[in-house]
Amino acid sequence: MNYDGSLRRVPWIIRAAGLVAAGGLLLSACSSPTAGSGTNNAGSTTTATTAVASRPAAPTGALPSALQVKLQAALESVMAQYHVPGAAVGVWVPGQGSWTTAAGVADVAGGIPVTTDMVWPIRSITKSYTVTLILQLADEGKLSLEDTLNKYVPGVTDGDRITLLELANMSSGNADYVNEAFLAKWQANPAKIFTLDELNSGALGQPAQFAPGTDYVYTNSNINLLGAVIEKVTGEPYDKVLAQRILDPLGQTGTSYMIDASKWSKPHPVGYVVEDGIAQAKTENSSILGPAGSMFSTLEDGRVWATTLGTGALLKPATQELRKIGHKIAKPPYDLYAVGMGTTDGWWGHNGEGVGFTAATFYHKETGASIVVYMNESDTPDKSHPADQAFRALAAVLSSGASK
């Protein structure tokens, strides 16, 4: 979906109002006197270890047949409305069972059907992983959310004023990395694998969009800069930190940070962008997204992440509650967007969209239910988000009590 009219064919640029939150409030709650031993960069007491979570089990059995019929109808309606070629979808409800389905085709030209075990680009859902890593490091006292960016990454305008929290909640005001110079490099070599340093270099020395903390604009640069912070603090590459802290403990064997799309296991979905009313197949170059959007995952791993993200199993309870402080935004499509995740109708999670794919991963605290939707279409003529629309339709079926 294109959210920036000046970059009409760059669907991964998403600009919208974001979270308003007091950095001091979030930091003080993360460093309460009961947190344990250790000292963070602001001198506050914190625990020395991160919460450890194991892979949550899926509900046993299948959802009631009547509910499955309604869920299938809701999915088919959304796919027909937006002419989505293919989708992989899962709904899991504790105490009732699960429903997973593969619909349509992964590759229109090849006639390859979608399967439930395919690996999909999850785009901006990656942001929820990256911000979780930052919050883990804050919980451990390895950094402070009030640290300014220039402590870790020099050269960003207002970097001596932008806090890590303002990057995480999209209120930093820093320039995005996608500019004419970046586009020229990419268009000259569409297969070029960009490094994180190359992505972040596009934001260095650029005019700020606004003063830190005075507005809220959702940009990939915010999260990619946090990726660089993670590497600086840990002394390890982003993908290794991600694996050690999240993917391995959760058994996410089908999930990876993949900047070289040639390593994408086949058969896999092809992404389609609607251009002039026609769905055009796109060649994948996930390296253009970095820690803001370069992750790939499976439906089952999506279920695990929905539950882990929604429950805050990898964070201190206070940190999880405070990361939920959100505000109204225009886009991406949430009721509120908070710190690396958003909420819609009581469901917490994250959406992803760009270059032919949309994704939605959400968890409902009151029921423990999870919904995951992966689709291979983006940039619809009406600027809708097909996976988010499908998530909303499936959530509405659950809330209607159709299983009773």
Automatic annotation (TrEMBL):
Lineage: Bacteria, Bacillati, Actinomycetota, Actinomycetes, Micrococcales
Keywords: Hydrolase
Ranges that cross the membrane: none
Superkingdom per UniProt: Bacteria
Pfam families with a match to the protein in the record: Beta-lactamase
E.C. number(s) listed in UniProt: 3.-.-.-
Protein species of origin: Arthrobacter cryoconiti
Protein name: Serine hydrolase domain-containing protein
Molecular function in Gene Ontology: hydrolase activity
Domain Beta-lactamase-related positions: 72-387
